[in-house]
Amino acid sequence: MIFSRFGLRIAAWNANGVRSRIIELRDFINKHSLDIILIQETHLRPGVSIRVPNYTLYRNDRQTQNIPSGGTAILVKSSLKYHHIPTPTLGAAEATIVVLTPPGENPLLIASIYIPPTTSPSACIHDLEKIFALEHSSILCGDYNAHHTHWGCNDNNPRGQLIKNLIDNTDTDIVAPNTPTRFGYNSASTIDFALTRNLYWVSDIVSSPELSSDHNPIILNFQTSIQFNFPTRNVSTNWERFRFHLADTPTFQPITAHSGEEIDEQVSTLTNQILTAYDNSSKQIHPNNNYYIDNDLRTLFKTRNRARKIYQYSRNPADKTILNRIQNKIKRKIQAVTQKQWEDKLASLDTVDGSLWSMTKGFKKKRSPISALKGNTGIAYTDEENAETLANSLESQFQLNNISNPTQDNNHIRLVTRFFNNENNFDDSPSITKPSEIVQIINNFKIKKAPGREGITNKMCKHFNRSVVFQLTNIINNILTVGYFPKNVENSFGYSDPKTWERPYSPR
């Protein structure tokens, strides 16, 4: 898969039932290195789930009819920074919405849109305006069932005329392919396209003769210098080399600190030593994100795409017959491959390694997508807005109760004052920490716990050699002797100095 952190690559497709076509959709995603896939007419029910590796699915199923129909969904690459937001109440259109939040850039709303052909045209325009109003920059892409010669159709219909008026009278642009996107028995029309607002990127769009539906998927490329992809850095670490780089020495001379600045310097030196050793002992892993597709199926997909392209060009019934024959062959092959994969999966389950219970847990636990936070000022998109929303919520919940009792308070003050005035209550020096205590604490660490802000994981701690344990013990003893807590350790524990609380984006 070709990978780029810059620009944006989006596909939209009216699947006419995505569950039976998920295997070819996975192959299509891998082939075109897509960031976001907008799907219309998913025909899914709440009890049915579909998965694509390295992508997160958000969906809105139509539940007003007895048979599966309609519905929209969005597949978002996991390396993107984004939020899912609830779809507002719509009268005619169906939509699923996410907002991309690249650091330092304005949020970008992306919506998968499906407008059924029998709905009111004026209600559709009202729905589109309601979605556009959610964010400043927007891309609304999908199946509009709107015909107009302005974007390549042979005729105009009322919905197409209203969308043309929307384009002419507002800061809305249309991005439509030069070739039709839907092919009927006796017609071809361009009803799948994108509407953008307050977006001025260079873009191109194509209608690709692929996949099994009466609609071609459309692929949009937006050229921009904005970085959207932030892939997780996966590394493999040689822990023997890690311990070697930590420079183990047979003897260690404690260094006494006399001030907080000296303790901060010791902590910083040890932290840099650990992180440098980790970097020198690790190498990045470049995972293969391609989803495995049966070779026979992949060959059939290529043959089908070629036959589909020929038919869409010739419109010859004989070519349509050939295409249908290949489609039926693909359908039978997918059923056989899916059944074989399921049987192999069941046969591999075992109670000893826990795979059986893990799969059972997956069936019993239903996961719901986590939407963006909504505070008093609206939806929070950026990290700063999320922090402010959480801070305001906690501040409103944890207010001090009026439980003052002057008599009891005065008694407490007298007891505390008496304690501090008695010198016998204080030792001349705190008890010394031993390296064996540090080792015992490290042995109880859980390696799956998230690291602090400095980036030292519990797994690194479990591979500390004697030199690091001695240095850590020395620092702790200096902290107890001087009575000073290092600043960088304060930050790791989420502590902040009261003087910094009034910074623009720090939680209060």
UniProtKB/TrEMBL annotation:
Domain Endonuclease/exonuclease/phosphatase: 12-215
UniProt-listed SUPFAM superfamilies: DNase I-like
Record carries keyword Signal: no
Pfam families: Exo_endo_phos
Keywords: Nucleotidyltransferase, RNA-directed DNA polymerase, Transferase
A single GO molecular function term of this UniProt record: RNA-directed DNA polymerase activity
Name of this protein: Probable RNA-directed DNA polymerase from transposon X-element
Species: Trichonephila clavipes
